[in-house]
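Morning!

This is the sequence you dropped in the shared folder:
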Amino acid sequence: MTYRVAMDIGGTFTDVVAYDETRGTYLAAKAPTTPGDLAEGVFASLGRAVDDPGDISFFVHGTTQGLNALLERKGARVLLLTSAGMRDVYRIARGNRDRMFDLHYRKPAPLVGTADTAEAGGRLDWRGTELVPLDEEAVRAAARRARAEGFAAVAVSFLFSYVDPAHELRAGEILAEELGDDVMVVLSHQVAREWREYERTSSAVLDAYTGPVVRRYLGRIEERFAERGLAVPVQVMQSSGGIVNAAYARRHPLQTLLSGPVGGTMGGTAAAALLGRPNAICVDMGGTSFDVSLVLDGRPDVSNEGSADGFPVLMPLVNLHTIGAGGGSLAYAEAGGLRVGPESAGAVPGPACYGRGGTRATVTDANAVLGRVDPEWFAGGHMTLDVAAARSAVGELAGELGLGPMELASGICSVANAKMAQAIRTLTVEHGREPREFVLLAFGGAGPMHAVEIARELGVEEVVVPRFPGAFSAWGMLGTEVRRDLTRQFFTPGDTLDGDAMAGALAGLEADGLTALGEQQIPAERRRVEHAVDMRYEGQDYTLTVPLTDAAEPAAEGFLESVADRFAALHERRYGHATPGAPVEFVTLRTTALGALPPLEPAVFAPETGGAPTPRNKSVHFDGTVHDTPVLRREQLSAGTHLAGPAIIVEATSTTVVPPDATVTVDAHGFLVIKLGGAS
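The structure's back. Tokens below.
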């Protein structure tokens, strides 16, 4: 037997999905994450799905190592090397305010201070022509300082290196000569070969800040897997929704920044296609965080730039909005009111009901007190919950606030649900999208427990819980593609466009992309490319990305009129207006090289037993009322099963809560389709 395996290492649990290539079947499992030694949790989870790592033919995983290092400010010490006179670009940043009406707004503190910024003489002009040769001695002086003061990384960001990287490349050679492999060297044009000095510098600094952490982690994982007999390369999920091998990820660690949660978006895209729903809200509620992303017109919502903890980053990434709201989010009293999150109990000690020493009330404890989980068969029977400990933790906080334990438990869930609904509005309502027009796809270990109440707050009428919801991000990683993104600046007004030159530049990017896929052992017949160009009206600062049919299209007759019409249509859709016929400009060429993996068969769905299962009932609290509620095993529900709420549906990786005024149907794929009553 051989297996294709995907793993998502979260803050609380490590999830794994294994596809048996012989039988065409899937198996999902999870185990608690072990922060002290991640490999321990990795192999505990893997051992529940695959007996021998030597049987694995393909292994991909998502990691939040880089993101955690950034969020916790535990990254590497970075020396920033800039062009002479440009040392303050990174510190000054931009003058815009992200929160217009926040009187206490402050820019994020730079990851590199002015004292840790060095300059080197040398200058190119905007065309890439050398005006002043590179001051190589200044570069060597920076290297000596990095070695003497113990910097773990050097980020190099020179003016106009996105046009001609000659000075940065030479600086990289000098730094490598002086520092060897002990200090990571990051060149800005290799991270983001795009215009805008601050954003490119920020991207390079982020790569340098998180890179050593990610490199050490990937090295340890590869070493430990090799010791266990894994004979294939370790693959890593990228923030763009594609995958790369670990060797490439070590060279470009920033690409893995959103590695973990993006798997859920790609799984959501595949699930939306199976459902025949082009638009979906993907919500992933785990133990620590709540991640929201969208599927729009059947494709993941991917942007060519974004931000990470307030710092701009130039690279393709799935638009994700993350808040600190998960099953382990701590509830507490503040100013006489109830607050939930963002602080989490994490994997250790975890919620009080886990019995690992936690004493503070969490969202999971509130659900346990309300009866919405099965304490005897939690996480597929691998954990037994201590409901008495949950009642004690919730009761203690209830006493502080002058409430009854059940009243407070319900309040904890309501506060968490309101926060999560607001997170969804950030990607929908605030961008002119109506949530009612979407299906809510709920996954993560805790997502299906809260999905219906979140949907009710948004007016969404349908919730879908896919199979393996607690390991759905891992499932999504199995079906994605190898991806490489390449860019090239191409500033030119529309009226002076040289279509042949643009087509030639795109052909060069295409060749580079196909070569990169070949290096990843993707056969020629499974390689393809997509091209696009960033455009704007003359005088605008922002751009829109317009897809192209192929690399040769710009050389065709009538291209300018055709692409201008497409740009106007996109502008109308995005901003509600357009100016057809107005002069346009071209800014950036983009090429995405995609390599398809051998296809996976859809998960065959068949219940373990025929006929309707015999449920056992328990008392569950909904809206202050106790309901006698059946507890059902999901694997025993056959396609076509239709149930009226209330119901608790348990499985190995999650629990689905169906309130009294909702109904649930099992579709042909084994998905739980929940229809809400009274959605507003």
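Headline: The CA atoms of residues 128 and 425 lie 43 Å apart.

More detail when I'm at my desk.
O.
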